[in-house]
Amino acid sequence: xxxxxxxxxxxxxxxxxxxxxxxxxxxxxxxxxxxxxxxxxxxxxxxxxxxxxxxxxxxxxxxxxxxxxxxxxxxxxxxxxxxxxxxxxxxxxxxxxxxxxxxxxxxxxxxxxxxxxxxxxxxxxxxxxxxxxxxxxxxxxxxxxxxxxxxxxxxxxxxxxxxxxxxxxxxxxxxxxxxxxxxxxxxxxxxxxxxxxxxxxxxxxxxxxxxxxxxxxxxxxxxxxxxxxxxxxxxxxxxxxxxxxxxxxxxxxxxxxxxxxxxxxxxxxxxxxxxxxxxxxxxxxxxxxxxxxxxxxxxxxxxxxxxxxxxxxxxxxxxxxxxxxxxxxxxxxxxxxxx
Length: 339
Ligand code: FAD
Ligand code: EPU
Prior knowledge:
By secondary structure, the chain is α+β, with helices and mostly antiparallel strands. The protein contains 8 helices and 20 strands. Helix content is about 25%, strand content about 25%. Flavin-adenine dinucleotide (FAD) binds near residues 48, 119, 128 and 235.
């Protein structure tokens, strides 16, 4: 079932050329179970791969790579306006969002054009433009590797936070997410507080936006600053926006009054800073070393212009962390999963 020595270049949006010792795709639960029977009989590390858009592969993967191709989509009305939409974990996220909009469902439009698969969306509680999946999440189902049973998780079980979930921490490598269900509504409630959306809607001459208009505005904004992985290798924001004690934010604000500082919902003690602003202010936006660097239009995105190794990009990220620490006393944390 596993193929030996498979190149992962086409399977990661950074376009890093490394190999997997063993590689397979699974399209149903029986195949997933068979794969783990093999892994258990000859244990080595394993990686569940979705769209490969939140990974940095720094070396050949000496283990099993399992590419998720679980499909499926169903929708069920639970009252006149609310529905539960269940989606296979291997479905493409953006195509799923477009389908919800096409079918008249509202809630996920701000999350348009995020690369990757539905199954990875709960891993880091994907978010953009003021919305996170936790806001519309109903439940997920996951294959428990040890018992080979399917377990169901509520939002509370997932322990969602900013780019966080229980699957990145306590339950890391214990489950394969097989299905995610969302609660969406037919009532459109535009989430346009994120300034750039309103500006873009104005530019589009739209006064009373529909969910599709908001989706289009988000797509336009994203295309204007985020590199398309088909053209330039990248994994979106490389670092999280740092959440720091109020005093740290105030100190930076006193020195740099234009620093963007955001409230942290539910906290009086912490503020969120914009890592992209810190990196740009440190003079690193557009910083290029041979074939890789910091994106010219968005300093939070590291890019592979072609042929860079994962190690080179990792080393650049270490240099950025050190520079930001020295200049602002803030420790950036990588958002991208390093392998
Ligand atoms: P992968 O990269 O394949 O996997 C990511 C991690 O999840 C790995 O650890 C993997 O083992 C694990 N995993 C994947 N699927 C499963 C599963 N079924 N079960 C268990 N573990 C699994 N993210 C945001 O939150 N907001 C953004 O706005 C955003 N913008 C982006 C823009 C660009 C241009 C790019 C390239 C990335 C962006 N990202 C963003 C990051 C990325 O798209 C998301 O994190 C996405 O959810 C990753 O999905 P994937 O299928 O590619 O996951
Ligand atoms: N900024 C700069 N210079 C830069 C980049 C940003 O000064 O080079 C400033 C902007 O001017 C703005 C602030 O930083 O004042 C925030 O920038 P932006 O709105 O572009 O968002 P971000 O904080 O850089 C976050 C997410 C993105 C998400 C967008 C939109 C994280 C780590 N990143 O980026 O998510 O799409 O907001 O909501 O939270 C991802 O996770 O991969 C990702 C792309």
